[in-house]
Design a protein that fits this description.
Elements: H1 12-20, E1 27-31, E2 33-34, E3 39-40, H2 43-47, E4 56-60, H3 72-75, E5 79-83, E6 95-99, H4 101-109, H5 119-127, H6 137-153, H7 155-180
Parallel strand pairs: 1-4, 4-5
Antiparallel strand pairs: 2-3, 5-6
């Protein structure tokens, strides 16, 4: 495990050292962004580092979805997940996943028992235009409206807006802290 102090990005160079040493790794996971501190990890640099052919890479992008440039297919990220409660601007309750063909092959071979988070079962249902379980239809309707808004706004503008708001918040917090400490 490679860790960073609270509020700091994970040192990708340290993660690369562990990977280069050829440890017994089957997967590498990193959180793309951390919403309480605004930290963004360099997921692209990690994804582009050397790893063994059977190794999967994963990135959590709960906050990063819609606020950060993320290209899982281009960067070779096998699994990325996100939640509805962040930049898609709807209540929590939906999860989004991007799964590469390499990861699907791993899912098909997996023997661990699972029930709720069964990607293979969900993929089979999706091929028939269904979901495996009762969907949160109110959230799906909210998501439809949010995605229409994002499409109208443009993803580039959504990401830019997130950057402007983040910078303004940091500036305000710094100013507030400096006045409070005086």
């Amino acid at each position: 495990m490679v860790e960073a102090p609270y509020g700091h990005a994970v040192p990708i160079s340290e993660m690369k050292k562990h990977l280069e040493n050829g440890g017994p790794f089957r997967a590498v996971f990193i959180q793309a962004t951390e919403s309480s501190t605004g930290v963004r990890n360099d997921v692209e640099a990690l994804a582009n580092s050397e790893r063994s052919p059977g190794m999967l890479s994963g990135g959590g992008r709960y906050y990063g979805l819609g606020t950060t440039e993320l290209h899982p297919d281009e960067w070779g990220i096998d699994i990325m997940i996100g939640g509805s409660q962040k930049a898609t601007m709807i209540p929590p309750g939906l999860a989004f996943a991007s799964v590469s063909e390499k990861a699907w092959k791993t899912v098909e071979k997996a023997k661990l028992p699972r029930y709720y988070f069964d990607y293979a079962k969900e993929r089979k249902s999706l091929s028939k235009g269904e979901s495996s379980y009762t969907p949160a239809t109110s959230l799906v309707v909210c998501l439809h409206a949010a995605l229409n808004y994002i499409k109208q706004l443009g993803l580039e503008n959504l990401i830019c807006n997130a950057s402007v708001l983040a910078a303004a918040t940091r500036e305000a917090a710094t100013l507030w802290a400096s006045r409070t400490l005086q």
